[in-house]
Specification:
mainly beta
Length: 195
């Protein structure tokens, strides 16, 4: 809940800082953008974290990500093409306390999506956009009990994402980005570099 408010506050803050004059656009044809971000509200992590810990008090939850790495090239004044890589992982471990009963369930997923973004406006610092991507995803579930384990992969290896986002450039080359929508996370934010 706190992270949702933080992302929303960041997004609203970026919108209010939108400049009234334009020198160079935040998104430019022929320029590249690289973003590194962190996300919140991954469905699988949420399911594993909400496992009934009152029935199993020795249950431990751990998670990493979702982490995002994005590249975009300005193909025109309003259209950018790129690649998004996203990773998330989570697990639960149960120990009955006797040293004989230990079980775990671990999950990780990574996706590689080709993406197209449609940019709106022509501001020197603020860059709102909507994007859609499709590609390949891998996922692996591992269930272990004592010394035995079993693995299962992704049922459908098709990756898909669609988000609404915005960048705010503090300098001509460095800024922040935020996105909300369907991806490895419902909300994400991070740093951005243009070159």
């Amino acid at each position: 809940m706190i992270m949702k408010k933080l992302v929303l506050s960041l997004f609203v803050g970026v919108i209010t800082l939108m400049p009234s004059t334009t020198n160079a656009q935040a998104f430019e044809q022929g320029k590249s953008q690289i973003s590194i971000g962190y996300g919140f509200a991954n469905t699988t992590q949420s399911l594993l974290s909400n496992y009934d810990q009152t029935s199993y008090p020795n249950l431990e939850f751990s998670a990493l990500g979702p982490l995002f790495l994005k590249y975009e090239f300005g193909a025109s004044e309003k259209i950018g093409f790129g690649l998004n890589v996203a990773y998330a992982g989570a697990g639960i471990t149960y120990d009955d306390g006797t040293g004989t009963g230990r079980a775990s369930l671990d999950w990780w997923g990574i996706s590689y999506n080709a993406r197209v973004n449609r940019h709106f406006g022509s501001h020197d610092k603020f860059d709102p956009y909507i994007g859609v991507g499709m590609g390949y995803k891998m996922a692996k579930w591992t269930a272990s009990a004592d010394d035995e384990s079993e693995d299962m992969g992704a049922l459908i290896p098709l990756g898909f994402e669609t988000t609404f986002g915005a960048r705010y450039m503090f300098t001509p080359n460095i800024g922040l980005y935020t996105e909300v929508g369907l991806a490895k996370a419902i909300a994400q934010f991070g740093i951005n570099a243009k070159f």
